[in-house]
Design a protein that fits this description.
The chain has helices at about 15-25, 45-55, 80-85, 105-115, 130-140, 170-175, 175-180, 195, 205-210, 215-235, 245-250, 300-310, and strands spanning about 5-10, 30-35, 65, 120-125, 145-155, 190, 255-260, 265, 275-280, 290-295. The protein is α/β, with parallel strands linked by helices. β4, α5 (about 130-140) and β5 form a beta-alpha-beta unit. The structure holds alpha-D-ribofuranose (RIB) and calcium ion (CA).
């Protein structure tokens, strides 16, 4: 079977890096048409740099990297250096990237790709704020009906939020963008904190990645050691939640996950709860279901997949 064509939109971020490594390690299943940097964990200049560092670490200096939105649609930029470090990829020492970003803007790349490829054959994987995809939908609304599936890391319900008591970071940074995306009628799979908080980078799991012994695996271990420290401190857990690789793992082994197709609305007005993903899990409203909200995951199966694939790099 031909590999699934995907576009990855991302704000690296150590956990984004793990997701991209998983994607590049799976060429028989995934054809990465391009990778789009968005401002999120750190400013765009760093997310673009970091994305190219990850491509080169994976032996993919040929990958097409595009630069997107510098800031959210209507709000000041919010970043997460407190989690990811000043550069967004703190934890490992790597050279500055030699590869350049493409001259085309990420939003135009998304539009051009979706209009060129046969309808329903390109999956969008978002690992950061939804600004680029929202801008593409505003500029070319027809792309909504051409997207095979949107698989996104973001949101939360039973787990609450991680940047405010009710909002998860990717949604909180650009709630207006998230609302545009969730209102667009795109077949959507959500990987919320309710799933990612079950995926802790425990010492035993990280030790298996370290045992691979390759440079990519060692760098990933160093990134995870930096990335997890904030959440270990916050939650008092053995390891921190590994968010973004869930998106790619779903494409590779969807059976690892289970959830419910339900309505998800985005709060954009309330100062108290802005960025909250209001998922109607119990079907108490007549609002139309618009996303598959994942809630359960086979954590050991997820880490076995990640570890085995990283060993292929
Ligand atoms: O809330 C977790 C999400 O925000 C992850 O995608 C992480 O990389 C940050 O972007
Ligand atoms: Ca991210």
């Amino acid at each position: 079977m031909a590999p699934r064509k995907i576009i990855i939109d991302t704000d690296p971020g150590q956990d984004d890096a793990a997701a991209i490594m998983l994607a590049f390690a799976s060429p028989e299943e995934l054809d990465v048409l391009g990778l789009c940097a968005v401002a999120g964990n750190v400013p765009l200049s760093f997310t673009s740099r970091n994305l190219r560092i990850v491509c080169e670490l994976c032996g993919r200096p040929d990958a097409k990297v595009y630069e997107g939105a510098l800031k959210p649609l209507n709000r000041p930029q919010v970043t997460a250096e407190h989690v990811h470090g000043r550069t967004g990829l703190d934890g490992a020492e790597l050279p500055e990237p030699a590869m350049s970003a493409q001259p085309t803007h990420a939003v135009d790349f998304i539009i051009e790709t979706l209009m060129r490829e046969p309808a329903g054959t390109v999956t969008i994987c978002t690992l950061g704020p939804l600004t680029n995809l929202a801008l593409a939908l505003q500029k070319a609304p027809d792309i909504a009906g051409r997207i095979q599936e949107l698989v996104m890391m973001g949101g939360g319900l039973f787990e609450g939020g991680n940047i405010t008591p009710t909002a998860e970071f990717n949604i909180y940074v650009d709630p207006e963008a998230a609302k545009i995306v969730f209102d667009a009628g795109i077949p959507t799979v959500m990987m919320p904190l309710d799933v990612t908080h079950q995926l802790l980078t425990t010492k035993a799991r990280v030790a298996k990645i370290a045992a691979i012994g390759t440079r990519p695996a060692q760098v990933l271990v160093e990134w995870l050691a930096f990335f997890e420290r904030f959440d270990i401190e916050k939650y008092g857990s053995d390891g921190g939640p590994l968010h973004d690789p869930t998106v790619i793992a779903y494409l590779l082994k969807p059976e690892l996950f289970s959830g419910r197709h339900c309505n998800v609305e985005i709060e954009t007005q309330s100062e108290l709860t802005v960025g909250m993903t209001v998922a109607d899990w119990w079907g108490v409203t007549d609002r139309k279901p618009n996303a598959t909200f994942m809630r359960n995951v086979d954590a050991d199966g997820f880490f076995e997949l990640l570890t085995e694939r990283v060993s292929r790099l």
